Amino acid sequence: MSPKITTELLKQLRQVMRSPKYVQEPVQAYIVPSGDAHQSEYIAPCDCRRAFISGFDGSAGTAIVTEQHAAMWTDGRYFLQAAHQMDNNWTLMKMGLKDTPTQEDWLVSVLPEGSKVGVDPFMIPADQWKRMSKALRSAGHDLVPVKENLIDTIWTDCPQRPCKPLITLDLSYTGVSWRDKITALRSKMAERKVLWFVVTALDEVAWLFNLRGSDVEYNPVFFAYAVIGMNTIRLFIDGDRMMDPAVREHLQLDSTLEPEFRVQVMPYGSILSELQDVGAGLSLKEKVWLSDKASYALTEAIPKAYRYLTPYTPICIAKAVKNTSETEGMRRAHIKDAVALCELFNWLEKEVSKGTVTEIIAADKAEEFRSQQKDFVELSFATISSTGPNGAIIHYKPVPETNRTLSVNEIYLLDSGAQYKDGTTDVTRTMHFGTPSAYEKECFTYVLKGHIAVSAAIFPNGTKGHLLDSFARSALWNCGLDYLHGTGHGVGSFLNVHEGPCGISYKTFADEPLEAGMIVSDEPGYYEDGAFGIRIENVVLVIPAETKYNFKNRGSLTFEPLTLVPIQTKMIDVNLLTQKECNWVNDYHQKCREVVGAELERQGRREALQWLLRETEPLLRTQ
Amino acid sequence: MSPKITTELLKQLRQVMRSPKYVQEPVQAYIVPSGDAHQSEYIAPCDCRRAFISGFDGSAGTAIVTEQHAAMWTDGRYFLQAAHQMDNNWTLMKMGLKDTPTQEDWLVSVLPEGSKVGVDPFMIPADQWKRMSKALRSAGHDLVPVKENLIDTIWTDCPQRPCKPLITLDLSYTGVSWRDKITALRSKMAERKVLWFVVTALDEVAWLFNLRGSDVEYNPVFFAYAVIGMNTIRLFIDGDRMMDPAVREHLQLDSTLEPEFRVQVMPYGSILSELQDVGAGLSLKEKVWLSDKASYALTEAIPKAYRYLTPYTPICIAKAVKNTSETEGMRRAHIKDAVALCELFNWLEKEVSKGTVTEIIAADKAEEFRSQQKDFVELSFATISSTGPNGAIIHYKPVPETNRTLSVNEIYLLDSGAQYKDGTTDVTRTMHFGTPSAYEKECFTYVLKGHIAVSAAIFPNGTKGHLLDSFARSALWNCGLDYLHGTGHGVGSFLNVHEGPCGISYKTFADEPLEAGMIVSDEPGYYEDGAFGIRIENVVLVIPAETKYNFKNRGSLTFEPLTLVPIQTKMIDVNLLTQKECNWVNDYHQKCREVVGAELERQGRREALQWLLRETEPLLRTQ
């Protein structure tokens, strides 16, 4: 992959940073955050402004351009990718390394006295604005909102904002009607004595109304905001899609409903002025609830005294704890997903040695097998199909320039998943189609030990996920190995494959206490730059555990793997496993045989079934 | 122990809360924090205001008194003790439990509209003031500084502030002269472009000047502040103690030094006005560095624009990383401490069955043996000598009303330590002098497994301590057991037995990355209310580890136990240990034999040596 040449673009951006047409006063620095106006992690092409200006298109990163410099902050998953995609105009700031300055510290070190730092107020979360503004102010600079997005002014061929049809989800998928969700939300609002709730995150809008969309690739969401009052429901959404009879029926738009459940549909672009009206009409002690991750623009629409900000909204927390309909749907989705992967790996085993299978072909084949499954909608993220050194690029996506051919001499890492109407999947398997080296097996086995340590962990109800992160690393640490990413993220139910508010990470920010019904990934890894990558990922459900003493009735939790795909035993150095770990692998494989085997049988996929049976032969320790 | 009757005191306090003699306007609530004007954890009798008003004298707790209520916030270590010591006027707020309100939330729920909440501005750290003030303001209340301490106005027999002689420490103990410490500090100040540094924590003043005192029991510190400029040193300290020739010589007060190393001695009480003068004399871009834990009163003395606040000062961080002289001193101190405990446990083994040894007698005996050791100064904290149900009171201190007699039927827990001129110790051993039950052994063994898991952990350089906390809990968690305290705290070098900025805890507040030379405790436990307490504590030194792959040259760390006291093998269910854990115990005991055995031999303590040899017989797994 060759880097994007950005010299001309940066020149143009620096011009508009000084142009009275766009800025009241010149700005000496301009921040281009990663997200969209909803602070989404995955975004539509029209929102890929940071990729447009820099070339770096990973899912996380912030660009800052000054008169003299252009710098990009991103995390360990993307160090290699960002270095490949950006030209020499850009400095890579490796977040998480000791000597990397924060954005604020860097700005203070490079800016002339009394500088103005501009940002689109819709693109920056309120909490981040606050932190950054304070740091800049204390150094004599100003963070200023620039109404017109300066990237958009130079992005002549910017794509249109998508506005695709909606999918309605009935009770068999969601378990709870949207009316009951609104009622539950209003009771949380009453508890906190707030009159209004502003829904800004796209997956929260989708979850609340039991609707799905496809405005953002891989994420079944649609561009919309909602403002919920104690007696009103306003949905800000554009397009013909609201004329679809199924949607009208689902939202009961044409019925005479009780007034408090009547959904008023309003234009997407009117959210700011509507919120300003709400803000202006408030009287003493009336509060408006927003996430502190909502955009600075929307937060400012409500006068400070009337804001009630929390890091996680009640929708975010309710969405994270899956009900029985949702967990049953997730189980079904994962069985179908396993069927597709058994087909894929069986096919790869036969084809790789021919030297004709590239990373892209393998990824396409995986999609093909998945799309044969019932209720398949789309992939849940860009398939990471990587072999040899590409595996060390943690969020690698094969493109023609980098596309390697799979071989019997290199490790192959496949991290992929799909959206089914009944659930979202995300699974990583690392395979060798020839004979792995002793070192590759050693590393793989440490990663597996970490995976098992988390998956089999027992912990008290309400434990925060960050306390489990080092279980995943202990075996690697003992040999002086580590990986520069968290161990797990929350997973949505036919929603975003990354969702808050829980996770398993040494970082402690997305970290609401774990409770039964939450779903997270368990995905330790090890990456040897220039050589290979290893990752073993299951999606796991938090379930009650049985323990001898049950934490004085506080309750015990553990995980149940939802992902049921064999872990390649050829890669395991069985003598590095304890007997307990060995039993875990054998029990897991037994379950794959029973559950996925039955489904392969039902679908008449005999060859894949034979592959599954071969791959799930019990391990035996020899020492 | 019977609770303190506080009805009359609370009545008096509520009177002064309304009295124009002490408050400009009546305050509807008054906060009594735990610390002194230096935000110390352990305090002098004259600063025990919270204990005076409530009866609860644990080392952590905040009292809030309103017209109608009196409430006490404390953590899991003190739930039982606080409940015992306080009368019915008080509500115990159990911090860390899910349903316990924060102080702010509670105040908002009980106060009438537009209330004033008073606090002594010297007693509240600036960061806490800020948080609390903001929360109260957003609910329509005000946090107000009350100059006169309201507890002092009703505390008629309040003891005098101590002003004891100082101890000077030479290079053989400290490794670095105070002048070199000042020079290093000034270079940190220059890096951050600050002109002044205010030293407010008592242990930081003591460390910086290589002086020790005894103004606060167990903590070899003295009441003082310091203000360091680029060319000036001001030490705010009272008393004749500055006339001591040894101190004058040590600080070179009577020599003609280079001006930048001349120590100006000023009255302790003049710090506020001096700081206000410093603040008034600053010009643009001149900054004053303070800890954000410094008192609100001192922080406010510097105008906001001139403050440079950090959670940890460079002194705090430099102090935590011990140099070779300090670690060698700590090793010596721990060997002497082990000698004293071998003597004690040998004596207890003979005496307990006679039924004449009480908790207080055992604690006194421990002190007696310690005081026989070279360079002994005092204990490092109040000895926790507890048997049977008293062991479950985590920070128990025996008093005549609770004093139990040790017996062959109950578990005995001794958590004790001393200050030696060469180091500070803190060790907990849990013993049974008869035959422990299977359940007691089971619990003890899980605690031991947790202790070993931390002590033997290998982790990359720069790992934060909170990531190691769950290693200590994993074995307990597997059976549904846990403990409600952190796993370890920083330990000073002939300084406070609890010091920042590192530790091992599920709480993430005192958590600077671990590096070689830091010293922390490793002390998991298990407590069965009304029955027994178990804790196994060593002080451990962070040292480089040898690993196969060394984290790509980032460096590997592990711990070396400084404490060398046998762990009672009678309490271990050896079949619950892995072979590795069993080897750890045997290797540890072998080291105790070699190192402490040699010292017992040298000191001619033959009987204690025999005890050591018996107690360190290797374990054998039978399964």
Task: Offer a concise description of the structure.
Chains A, B: It is an enzyme of class 3 (hydrolase). 2 copies of one chain form a homodimer. Chain A is 34% helix and 19% strand.
Give the tags.
EC 3.4.11.9 (chains A, B), manganese (chains A, B), 6-stranded mixed β-sheet, 34% helix, acetylation (chains A, B), 623 residues, aminopeptidase (chains A, B), 19 helices, Creatine Amidinohydrolase, alpha+beta, homodimer
The CATH topology of the largest domain in chain A corresponds to Creatine Amidinohydrolase
* Order of strands in the sheet with most strands of chain A: 4-3-2-1-5-6
Using CB atoms under 8 Å apart, which protein chain pair has the greatest interface? A-B, 32 and 32 residues
Looking at this structure, what is the CATH superfamily of the largest domain in chain A?
Answer: Creatinase/methionine aminopeptidase superfamily
Average the pLDDT over all residues of chain A and give the rounded result: 96
* Major beta-sheet overview of chain A: 6 strands, mixed
Low-confidence stretches of chain A: none
Structural class of chain A: alpha+beta
> Count the strands of chain A?
28
How many helices of chain A? The count is 19
Oligomer: homodimer
Task: Classify the beta-strand content of chain A into a percent band.
Answer: 15-25%
Please report the first level of CATH classification, the CATH class of the largest domain in chain A.
Alpha Beta
| Count of the separate structural domains of chain A | 3
Under the CATH scheme, the architecture of the largest domain in chain A is Alpha-Beta Complex
What percent of residues of chain A adopt helix (DSSP H or I)?
Answer: 25-40%
Distance, first to last CA of chain A: 46 Å
